Predict the 3D structure of the following.
Amino acid sequence: MKVLIVDDDHMSCQCLRQLIDWASLGCEEPICAFNGAEALKLIEDRRPDIVVSDVKMPVMDGRELCRQIYEKYPDINLFFVSAYGDFETAQMALRYHVKGYVLKPLDGDALLTLQDMIRETAIRQESASFFVKICGDEYRDVLKCAIEEKDREMVDCFFHRVERLQETLSLEDIGLWQHLIAPLIDYRNTCLKMDYGLLFETQRRLQAEIMACPVSERTAWLRGQFDQAMQQEKPDSSLVVWEMQKAIQERFSSPDLDINMLARELSMSPVYLGRLFLEQTGMKVTDYIQEKRLRFACEQLQHSVRPVKEIAGLSGYRDAGYFNKVFRRSMNMTPGEYREKYWHRTD
């Protein structure tokens, strides 16, 4: 953070610059101005986060500087350091939201008091900035990548900051937690290829669960969700296709079997599964299911005396007419013709 010291006493400026450990407060080395008018020019140019100002100064005193900062630069944190602790100045400090007031002379106790007030303000400002970045989704991709790469150190560091944030700000707002759940949903979407319907239900469930937790326990709960996500392995593409083929082999006789059913059971996107299956096998899922059904139907026509309508049902077709149509288009003959042609050959 940037700091501006405003005091017409050069010795006071040097004292504040040298005797406060600004680096430990997360601040750059301060710059100095020697009256309010000079300070306003530097504020316009440098935009400091913190201004430490005397009250009695020539050209423009601290009161007028305070008023203009309040009106033009409300994000600046202003502290007064003055030898005058009058009631009028105290009222003005309250009216214009001055963060702290320390009386001169600047002995060890006064400097320590000022340093503590600035540290508290710096922590609050850092927390507020962190909060805004979270709600602006600046950490969304970073956290999703951390889950994907199992970067526990980065996740630990992030949630340590969230814990500090929780100590300084009221985190009742559901919006914050929705933004922190988002990387988990992104990971399930892009890396686990989760089905969109299941993805929506997972998001809704996570949001309901975190809001049911006491505010003080939400960070720990969410950290646990990230741990679980990092323990999940990405699906091996060949294993996924094998699971699909196995399911088709076992349940091709169900008329309801299709890519959507397989996607629901594997908790993955049907579009992704269809593309993956085509890449691995060179066939569309619908064609693969149809091949299994027709192969079974052919075996039944060759080796059983079941009626064609019954074979159609056992092969996964609700409508015998549609079965006949599909069979004829694929085999260039009707089921009856196929049975007549191949029954004696295999008997």
About this structure: The longest strand covers residues 77-82.
